[in-house]
Amino acid sequence: MTQMKKTNIIIVLLMAGFTQAQQKISLNELIQISTESNFQNSVNDVQVRKAELDRDGTAEIPKTGVFVENEDFQPSNPDGIWKVGIAQEIPWPGLNKARKNYMEQLLTTHKMNREAIQAVIKRDVKKAYYELWYLQDKKNLFLQLDSIYKNMFDAATVRYNVGDVAELDKISAEVKYKEIQAFLKQVDKDILLQQQELMLLTNQPVFYLPDENALEKISDSESLTSNIHPSLLVQKQNIEVSQSMIEVQKNTNKPDFSARVFSQTYLGMDDPVTGFSVSVAFPLFGLKSMKNKFKALETDVELQRAELKWQELNLDNQKNQAMTQLEKEQIMLDFYEESGLKQAESIIKASTLSYRSGEISFAELSQFMAQAISIKQNYLDALNLYNQSMIEYQYLTNQN
């Protein structure tokens, strides 16, 4: 979503005088809201209704004509023979049936596209939700740092005032403290961006937030099986649409019929003439053009089949890449979960105690703290990347 769209959402809310507190919500609840309220569903609903109306209106009967004609002029009868009647053209019987089948196939395509739309919505909601969850944990990490550096800054100020440490330690502590505050402001803006993304996806003017629990790793228990992706089903249906159009063209090339009925009764004749005529129109001219149209439609079927083959190959490749990415990110997660996080906690505790007891300087403490916090932040980054990749993999394997 572009920044302009996000800005427009905020402007609309402000113009409406809307104020909304942060609302905690679970992922399942958010998915349910988005799959029901997302604007793409409304667009699809209109497409389905239009396709239904098009299908119901396929039985086209040409307009009925009314004619008045005069013929059979003779020297002995210069007035000729006046006739009044009606004329009706009748298309080939199979044409309307072929057209209706074509419209039925289009209707099926729009209905099947609903599943493809829902899959994309669920994927995007999951990505935004887990990104928001990650940012919330990142903010909590910075809040811990803010508290730590605030205490250190206060301690450095006291020790500087009594002449226990140099002014450089006090300045360094103040810089780190203010830097963390700047990071917190940045994270708040990132959180707002994700909330705006969820506003668009849910079509709801609510600032959602994830649960308070720590960011969790998405389970891969369901990733062992794979279902046919809805986008492939839609493309297979596109082949049916193209094939049904061939049947329409076949019946369009068939003969057309016309009938006429006339009478002199309405002209007040004493001995009125009444009659009828039936004719058949064959496509004698333009046969080459009809043949080329038919070949073009056959080529379109081949094109749709080639597109399906490409989508299948591309999807398989994306799944393989997503799995490789997951395996790569799992390596770093294993390190952090097995030893990295424990070491970070140990570094924080030991360095803080050493600083307070005067065993190390603030510069040394900052180095230890930076190392420990870097480990924690890198773990969060790795976990977020893993989750985002897992969401994409589950989407590609239709595990939503």
Q: What is the number of beta strands?
A: 6
Helix-and-strand structural type: alpha+beta
| Poorly predicted parts | 9-19
What would you call the shape? rod-shaped
Average of the residue pLDDT scores: 83
The radius of gyration over CA amounts to 37 Å
> What would you give as the CATH superfamily of the domain at 18-72 and 80-290?
Outer membrane efflux proteins (OEP)
What gap, in angstroms, lies between the N and C termini?
A: 22 Å
Instruction: Give me the strand/helix succession.
Output: HEHHEEHHEHEEHH
Summed up, the helix count is 8
CATH class category of the domain at 18-72 and 80-290: Mainly Alpha
Helix fraction, binned, reads 55-70%
As for the CATH topology of the domain at 18-72 and 80-290, it is: Outer membrane efflux proteins (OEP)
Q: What does this 3D model show about the protein?
A:
The protein is rod-shaped. Strands 2-3-5-6 form a four-stranded antiparallel β-sheet, with no helix packed on it. A two-stranded parallel ribbon has the order 1-4. Mean pLDDT is 83; it is low at 9-19. It is an alpha+beta fold and 400 residues long. The chain starts with a helix and ends with a helix. The protein has helices at 3-15, 27-37, 39-56, 93-161, 167-202, 230-252, 287-356, 362-396; strands at 23-24, 64-71, 81-90, 208-209, 256-263, 274-281. The protein has a domain at 18-72 and 80-290: Up-down Bundle (Outer membrane efflux proteins (OEP)).
